[in-house]
Structure formats: structure tokens, C-alpha cells
Write a structure and sequence with these properties.
The protein has 195 residues and is α+β, with helices and mostly antiparallel strands. The protein is built from four helices and seven strands, in the order βββαβββαβαα.
Length: 195
């Protein structure tokens, strides 16, 4: 139903299953191996930096062939530490109930507000208030604004510091050259405090 909302360009859902994941098994398994995709952080923790033929991990008490590794998910960082298995394999081998726990939606930029307002009622018409709708792109915009402010403050701080260091170096170089000149001419070294 969410895919039929005007402005929605893409919908993906995931469900949550608890289980430990290891890069090698401690217990032999004989079940048919499903296929998985690793989040960026999960792959790093497992010591997998690229996928080789027959690359497997031990997840949820079974072998899973690794089909790929995701790039870091900027809009959904929780995916980075996940192991993603298709719904049919999750239902068959991991006891998944088939109900998504999270749905990811991509919408046209001009339609984000309209889609946002319709998501709760579309996902759960009987009780829309039970649906937690978030807009990670808004968080990214706020973070970018904050970083922009910090960069402007950093720029000003660096400019003031460089001006002070440059001024002190100039005064020091002037005093040194005056002292060298006065010494070479056998004159008294006098540097007025005002200068």
C-alpha cells in the first residue's frame, strides 16, 4: 500500500530476528545455506572486506553464503551492523514471522512532506498512531547545518590565531632585525614600546 502513495519512488522493508553472527562456526551445521548481504560495519567486524566465491558466515545457527557487502548507509546507519537475509529464507530457516518491523521509503523530493503525512495511516489503517515515522533526511540536513556553523566558527578561530601568530612573528622579526642592525653599527638597541 505504501508503494501506491503518490510521490513514493521506492519501498523496502526489513524484519528483525535476533541471533549471533560469526565468521566461522563453532558447531557443524547441515541445513541448506541461505544467502545474505552484510552491512558495512558487520562485514568489518567479521573481518570480511570483499566477497569471494563460497564466502560464508555462521548466522542464527546456520551457514549463510555472503552475496555482497553494502556501502555505509548514511540515511539508515542501523543497517550497517546488520546481516540481511531475504524474507523467504528468513521464514524457512530463521523462524521469521513474515511481518516487517521496519519499512524504508524513498520519495520524490517535492513529495516528501505529503508522503510523510500518509505513511502511518497507510501502513496501519486500524491504528496509525502505532506507526513510528521518521525522516532521516531531515536529520542529515540539521547535521549539515550544524557542521556548517562549526566550520564557520573554526574558520574564524583559525583566522584570529593565524593573525596573532603572524603579528607576533612580525614583531619578533622586526625586533631581531633592529637588534642586528644596531649591533652591526655599534649603536644602542632601542625599540619603542609603542612600535
Amino acid at each position: 500500500m505504501i508503494g501506491s502513495i503518490g510521490g513514493v519512488t521506492e519501498v523496502q522493508e526489513i524484519g528483525t530476528i535476533e541471533g549471533d553472527v560469526y565468521s566461522s562456526p563453532l558447531i557443524p551445521a547441515t541445513a541448506h545455506e541461505p544467502v545474505c548481504v552484510l552491512g558495512a560495519a558487520a562485514a568489518e567486524r567479521l573481518g570480511i572486506d570483499r566477497v569471494f566465491a563460497s564466502e560464508r558466515i555462521w548466522a542464527g545457527n546456520m551457514w549463510c553464503y555472503v552475496a555482497g557487502i553494502l556501502n555505509p548507509a548514511v540515511l539508515a546507519p542501523e543497517i550497517d551492523s546488520s546481516v540481511l537475509v531475504g524474507f523467504p529464507a528468513a521464514e524457512s530457516y530463521l523462524g521469521f514471522d513474515g511481518n516487517p518491523s521496519t519499512i524504508y521509503v524513498r520519495a520524490q523530493t517535492s513529495q516528501v512532506s505529503a508522503v510523510y503525512n500518509l505513511l502511518g495511516a497507510t501502513a496501519n489503517p486500524q491504528d496509525p498512531s502505532e506507526v513510528d515515522v521518521s525522516q532521516p533526511s531531515a536529520v542529515l540536513v540539521a547535521q549539515a547545518d550544524a557542521q556548517g556553523r562549526i566550520r564557520r566558527i573554526q574558520f574564524l578561530s583559525e583566522a584570529v590565531l593565524l593573525a596573532l601568530v603572524g603579528g607576533a612573528a612580525g614583531v619578533g622579526a622586526g625586533a631581531l632585525s633592529t637588534a642586528v642592525y644596531a649591533t652591526a653599527k655599534h649603536e644602542l638597541i632601542v625599540i619603542p614600546a609603542l612600535a
